[in-house]
Amino acid sequence: MSLQVVVGSITFLPCGYKRHLVFNRPHGAGAKLLEILLIALHTMRIARLFKAFATQSQHVGGQNFPHRTSFTKAQSRFFIGFIIAYLLALAFFRYRVSHDPGSYFFTVQGYEPKYSLTRVQQAQSYLENLDKSSQNQPVGIQHHENKAIPQLCIGMPTAKRPKEQHVNVAIASLLDHLTPQERDQIQLNILIAHANPQEHPFLNNSASVVNASQLADNVFTYHDIAGGSQIITEVIQDLEKAKRYNEKSFYDYSLVLHQCSQSQAPWVLILEDDTLAQEGWYTRTMDSLRELERKHNDGNRAEDWLYLRLFYTEKFLGWNSEDWPTYFFWSLLAVMSTMGIGLYFRRLSSPSSSLPYTALPSKQSDPVPSPIPLSFIFSVSFLCVPALIILYFAAGRMTVQPLPAGINVMNNFGCCSQALAFPRNMSLKLSHWLEKNITATTLNLPSNTFTDNSWKQDQGAAVDSTIETFANERNLQRYALMPSAFQHVGAETHKQGITAAREWFSVSGARGIWNFGFEELGSSP
């Protein structure tokens, strides 16, 4: 299936005219010239609409109002300037707002990896520069004793992917720029998420370059963590055979949470194995977590936040249908305010005005001022302002209302579970909640055994949706770090089959689960 993207759909132009450009490959100069000509055509249509509206308004005005005038030169210049500015704005958004998935001007070029490619290359170089003798060391389950309690425990479940494996790069990107002191503050736990661990490339000697699992502090299997529980092992095997990977992910998440909670680290970070860390992620993450801790401790609210999201996708942060009454209210207010201001100045410019302005002395030779034509006021209020409102919404929420850099509240529309950092007390509570409900599910216990009635409803949902349920029922705040400290680079998983991923680029768009702001990190000074 070839990738086709419908871009630049402008539905707000007159006469019901719509433009849909479908591209199978990036455009050349001829295609861009054609698009400019199309925009010029739309501009001419807008100009004709203004003229027709003004003529009709003047015709009506001539029957009811004593001052029947055409547009002055200044007013005509205003409309010409508005049309030119609108045309330039369309061109600007068309070529500059390709990174906002909530924009009508969004294109597939927004998925182009920039900083991601740099980080992948750095991670691969880091692996290649490791001691080559490490490749000959036996690979197996390892457990290292930490000299001190870590500041951060990282849990990462990993499974064999249908095609390319990203876990080596994921691990290397975590470690490649850490100082020795920073590395000593981290405990990295890897869970081999297979009932038969030998299926994973880490244990069947098929891992490319260097086996990055050797960089971890601990590598676990289900048998290690579950204490040899035959029931858990059989359940995992059944879920794998049935390809019920969403349900299996609950077990994985619960197990890595549990293991990290046992480390006594004050902070727990759970990562998926197809993530990519930015350079300097550790400093940004720890500074942000400590800032949140100070904020909530100062307010005596030590337990009212659940996590700091280190990855999110802008895909779900656009204009939401739930908020349409708010959007309509402000749009209507803008139109009515413009008309009210116009009518006020019309009254101000009238010879019969009783406002102090008209009492100012003037020369005998000065012409009698004419009131602002109603046609001009109506044209500005009902054509120009709505056109600007539509352009505002078409540009996309992340373009006109971007999240400020730093920590932001994100209690709604946050996606997904690629990188979530928890305070230890909350990781314990979430782990206990997951374990209790998973156990009840595994043993087919009565529904009253579940700690939350919503658990049964969430069984078919993803892990991140269930975590949101846990937070909503306890009124826990959730935060996100802007820009993201991690990127999602996996194109395919067992959870979803082959899709129309963005195959133009060596790092794909990861099925649309992509952070566009992450790609701009490399261009920051």
Automatic annotation (TrEMBL):
CDD domains: PGAP4-like_fungal. InterPro entries: PGAP4. GO terms for molecular function: glycosyltransferase activity. GO terms for cellular component: Golgi membrane. Keywords: Membrane, Transmembrane, Transmembrane helix. The chain crosses the membrane at residues 78-95, 327-345, 372-394. GO terms for biological process: GPI anchor biosynthetic process. This is Integral membrane protein. It comes from Talaromyces stipitatus (strain ATCC 10500 / CBS 375.48 / QM 6759 / NRRL 1006). The lineage of its organism: Eukaryota, Fungi, Dikarya, Ascomycota, Pezizomycotina.
